[in-house]
């Protein structure tokens, strides 16, 4: 007598086999999903912490996004990297910066250089129970990608030897380190390459080495990264200082700041270098200059005005002196007797700016000088003035011929700058009394010779940086000159009428 169960019906066996088959397929599918999910989770997590649980795991890591979504105000005190100096020795600090360089020394030690604006500081990680730093934390720090944004808490210490790779001559002994935002592993621009000077390229070439040169197109395509180089940081800060000093000086001379329209009905300078467009079916253009509105302000009783604003020129030239758009520093003032009153204001303005930069922007100037070397500007306390004819005569004596009553071209201006420097010991001077043919329509002719004008240009190192003049203030002469310069007087009627 058998104790085995009776055989199952064929239909039941088929059902069991099918269920087993489906179960295996589902298991494989679920396994693949789980594997992909684990890979995604691993990519989002910091590097593995090792076999042993890290007792200092809370001292480092990637900060979750929700923690930086204005979740709370901690009340913590932050220290600027540029403010770290020897006086801070022994003090605990909290800093934030971009990871400019990461140098592992061993499993238990690493250096991370953080950068904030133009300042850099070296942060030191040494695995130690006393410091609350583990080998896993050191490994985490070395896994950071360059330009990642990092928060560091630590204690300021003084290095045994002077630091050459950082601006700050202190170190931070790291106690906590958190990554706020990771940069991609490979950036399109290496800041070290973008910050190189021509001298570095020349030395490398002589040594048979080849360095990466970052071209202009690459810099412009990735401008946000290129702006981080020390020289660019310094250039923008000096630009800000020039603008501030411009405002400060003119305000002290009783000027009033104004803002003029940039979308206007007609040309503000004359000539073809104007961006034309249609505005609601009407012809319009972008302002080449705030000139007409500055003069209208003077007629409106302001006496002295200035403006800092955009200027648009449809220049069909590929040189550093021809820009389609730039920020103009403009000034206009009432003349009591002679347009040299304007020259005197310009003289005082520029000397004040030069002194301010030399005294207050030494760090920025030195930073720029490292990548783009330059010599200190030579200028006189009382600015040199030369007539146009005197300048032309200097050029002729040096063998350079200029078209009679013509404007100076780029090479002539540069040569004149060299001649003036050699003869007078200055790179900053004013050339005045230009021919009528090379000045805007609103420029006042000279009283003794209408072929010349009461106008001037200001030069630095052989390049014109300012044009100025006494303006025509009689409607009849203004209309006549506009027509002679090819300007439709009806498009500037409001400007002309302001002198009636």
UniProtKB/TrEMBL annotation:
GO terms for biological process: aspartyl-tRNA aminoacylation. PANTHER family: ASPARTATE--TRNA LIGASE, CYTOPLASMIC, ASPARTYL-TRNA SYNTHETASE. Keywords: Aminoacyl-tRNA synthetase, ATP-binding, Cytoplasm, Ligase, Nucleotide-binding, Protein biosynthesis. It is found in: Cytoplasm. Its EC number is 6.1.1.12. Belongs to the class-II aminoacyl-tRNA synthetase family. Type 2 subfamily. It comes from Zizania palustris. This is aspartate--tRNA ligase. Pfam families: tRNA-synt_2 (PF00152). Residues 236-500 form the Aminoacyl-transfer RNA synthetases class-II family profile domain. It is an enzyme of class 6 (ligase). One of its GO terms (cellular component) is aminoacyl-tRNA synthetase multienzyme complex. Residues 28-38 have a biased composition (Basic and acidic residues). GO terms for molecular function: aspartate-tRNA ligase activity; ATP binding; RNA binding. It catalyses: tRNA(Asp) + L-aspartate + ATP = L-aspartyl-tRNA(Asp) + AMP + diphosphate. Residues 24-61 are annotated as: Disordered.
């Amino acid at each position: 007598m058998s104790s085995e169960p009776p055989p199952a019906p064929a239909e039941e066996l088929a059902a069991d086999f099918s269920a087993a088959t489906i179960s295996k397929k589902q298991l494989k599918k679920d396994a693949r999903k789980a594997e992909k999910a684990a890979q995604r989770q691993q990519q989002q997590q910091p590097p593995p912490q090792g076999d042993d649980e890290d007792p200092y795991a809370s001292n480092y890591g990637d900060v979750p996004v929700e923690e930086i979504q204005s979740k709370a105000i901690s009340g913590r005190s932050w220290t600027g990297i540029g403010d770290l100096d020897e006086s801070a020795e022994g003090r605990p600090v909290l800093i934030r910066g971009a990871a400019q360089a990461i140098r592992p020394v061993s499993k238990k030690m690493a250096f991370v250089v953080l950068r904030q604006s133009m300042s850099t500081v070296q942060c030191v990680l040494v695995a130690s129970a006393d410091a609350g730093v583990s080998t896993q934390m050191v490994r985490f720090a070395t896994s950071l990608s360059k330009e990642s944004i990092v928060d560091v808490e630590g204690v300021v210490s003084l290095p045994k030897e002077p630091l050459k790779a950082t601006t700050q001559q202190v170190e931070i002994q790291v106690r906590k380190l958190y990554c706020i935002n990771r940069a991609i592993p490979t950036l399109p621009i290496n800041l070290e390459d973008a910050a190189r000077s021509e001298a570095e390229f020349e030395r490398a070439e002589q040594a048979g080495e080849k360095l990466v040169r970052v071209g202009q197109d690459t810099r412009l395509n990735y401008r946000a990264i290129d702006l981080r180089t020390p020289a660019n940081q310094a250039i923008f800060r000096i630009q800000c200082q020039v603008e501030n000093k411009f405002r400060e000086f003119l305000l002290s001379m009783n000027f009033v700041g104004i803002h003029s329209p940039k979308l206007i009905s007609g040309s503000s300078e004359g000539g073809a270098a104007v961006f034309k467009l249609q505005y609601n079916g009407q012809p319009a253009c972008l302002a080449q200059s705030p000139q007409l509105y500055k003069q209208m302000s003077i007629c409106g009783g302001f006496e002295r005005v200035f403006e800092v604003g955009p200027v648009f020129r449809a220049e069909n030239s590929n040189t550093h002196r021809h820009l389609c758009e730039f920020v103009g520093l403009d000034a206009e003032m009432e003349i009591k007797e002679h347009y040299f009153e304007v020259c005197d204001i310009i003289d005082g303005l520029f000397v004040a700016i030069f002194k301010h930069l030399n005294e207050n922007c030494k760090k920025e100037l030195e930073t720029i000088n490292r990548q783009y070397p330059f010599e200190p500007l030579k200028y006189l306390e009382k600015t040199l003035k030369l007539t146009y004819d005197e300048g032309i005569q200097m050029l002729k004596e040096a063998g350079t011929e200029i078209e009679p009553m013509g404007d100076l071209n780029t090479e002539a201006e540069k040569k004149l700058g060299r001649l003036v420097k050699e003869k007078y010991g200055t790179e900053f001077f004013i050339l005045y009394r230009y021919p009528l043919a090379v000045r805007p329509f609103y420029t006042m002719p000279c009283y003794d010779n209408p072929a010349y004008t009461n106008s001037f240009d200001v030069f630095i190192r052989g390049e014109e940086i300012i044009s100025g003049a006494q303006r025509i203030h009689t409607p009849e002469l203004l209309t006549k000159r506009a027509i002679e310069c090819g300007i439709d007087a009806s498009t500037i009627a409001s400007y002309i009428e302001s002198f009636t």
